[in-house]
Amino acid sequence: NNGNLQRLDQSHHLHPFTDFRDYAQHGGRIFSRAEHIYIYDSNGHKMLDGMSGLWCCNLGYSQQSIVDAVTEQMQQLPYYNNFFQCSNQPAIELAKALVDVTEDRFNHVFFTNSGSEANDTNLRLVSRYYQLQGRPEKKHIISRKNAYHGSTIAAASLGGMSGMHEQTNGLDYIHHIEQPHWFEVGPDEDPDAFGLRVARQLEDKIDELGESNVAAFIAEPVQGAGGVIIPPDSYWPEVQRICDERDILLIADEVICGFGRTGQWFGSQTYGIKPDLMTFAKAVTNGYQPLGGVMVSDKITDVLLNHGGEFSHGLTYSGHPAATAAGLATLKILRESNIIANAADNVAPHFQARLKELEAHPIVGQVRGRGMFAAVELVSDKTSREKLAPESAGAVFCRNTANNLGLMVRQTGNAMIMAPPLICNTGEIDALVDMLSQALDATAKHYGI
Ligand code: PLP
Fold first, then answer.
1. Cβ(292) – ligand 1 distance below 6 Å
2. Of 116, 179, 261, 279, which is best to mutate to test ligand 1, by the most ligand atoms within 8 angstroms of its C-beta?
3. What are the phi and psi torsion angles at 130 (to 5°)?
């Protein structure tokens, strides 16, 4: 039966971010159930989920109150839209709850189904904001290399991964500057000097394009999918200064950083950023329902509301009752428990300290992290920082080994990436690090190091 399911999957299902030919030949893992922080494939293989799904199940897989909230909502009002002055109770209540947990200047929310659509929404909001002010030429958007902002055309254009760009007929008014990836881009520089230098590329790009033509800068507080790129402390204050002084809107993509990942509710708080727009998705429903959106600051809504007129933008499922009910139940857990504070104060320091020990391992070039996410960079030589193997083969080998040992981790470039659920205890973190350590040993052995 399992073999049959695998064959059907290989025959008919085109998977996201998957080499179709390779999958058709070799297949993969079918997941059939999950509990607490563990996922089980259809062969019964149990794995500790060191990635919280795709950075979304921050509260793990057994949150019955979210399941109940969705079930009750489906029985009460399974669907209605929010177009044309209609609304529904969970969407209204979630909007209010999000306003309550974000900073004071955020008083409005626009709901989407995903982070990608939320970033598209950002671009539409930004262009309407400037058009209403009679400044339509302010349309250029600056993003960063190696960023991931989603997979629609606009989101893929915002993203900075070269592989995605090669496959995308991208938008020509989106430009990319360097990422604050000290280990890869500037390891011979003092980290703070490097952070300032990279931040100032934003100013250079604004000068190049002309300040009156630049609308916004978008970035994740910590670049997640790009490899958990922890910015030097000097980076964000300088970016904020430039955006403020040069009249550029700042968009923080909090799709991964939001809802506790960096130690506070939002990565913007951790890094002292004051964005004008904030993208969220993923953990807003603990991953149990598809939901994303944009927190829109008063600076933007003052223009939108004062000028009036329809904002011609929306999705059939914007503010879907079942999805927003899941969001509401998730926020209730986060607000009424001490999960975010406990993760920040007790679990994350243990997680980061245990991972840091791995820097002594012969194939580990750098361990970096903040709060409940981290990356372990693999090298063949610690001094030259030479890759472990051509392309990303070393990290792929290590990831596959970890998976077989019972740890779900992800590989990005030459790094192993982890974002365990915030509900992990220190013993579970120890189990995660021990499995990763075994996988590193096996990988070193495989490459004769
Ligand atoms: N923005 C960031 C920072 C993300 O990490 C992702 C997804 O990983 C997205 C946007 C896109 O979100 P979605 O996959 O929900 O469209």
1. yes
2. 116
3. -75, -35
Give the separation between CA 28 and CA 26, rounded to whole angstroms: 7
CB 281 near ligand 1, within 6 Å: yes
ipTM of the complex: 0.99
pLDDT, tens digit, 9 for 90 and up, residues 319-361: 999 999 999 999 999 999 999 999 999 999 999 999 999 999 9
Tokens of 425: 């205890």
Using a cut of 0.90, tell me whether the model's pTM lies above it.
yes
For residue 105, which phi and psi values (nearest 5 degrees)? -75, -10
Kindly report, residue by residue over 226-249, the tens digit of the pLDDT.
Answer: 999 999 999 999 999 999 999 999
Is residue 347 lining ligand 1, measured as CB closer than 6 Å? no
Q: Is 60 in the pocket of ligand 1 (CB under 6 A)?
A: no
3-state SS assignment for residue 299: helix
Q: Which residue has the CA at smallest separation from atom 13 of ligand 1?
A: 115
Provide CATH code, domain 2-62+338-446.
3.90.1150.10
Q: What's the CA-to-centroid distance between 224 and ligand 1, angstroms?
A: 9
- Asked if 407 and 45 touch (Cβ cutoff 8 Å), the reply is no
E strands in 214-291 = 214-219, 249-253, 277-280
CATH of 65-336, one of 1.10.3210.10, 2.60.40.10, 3.40.50.790, 3.40.640.10: 3.40.640.10
Cβ of 255 closer than 6 Å to ligand 1, yes or no, is yes
Strands of 249-253's sheet in order across: 106-112, 292-297, 277-280, 249-253, 214-219, 140-144, 174-177
How much distance in Å is there from the Cα of 220 to the middle of ligand 1? 10
Q: Where are the domains of the chain?
A: 2-62+338-446, 65-336
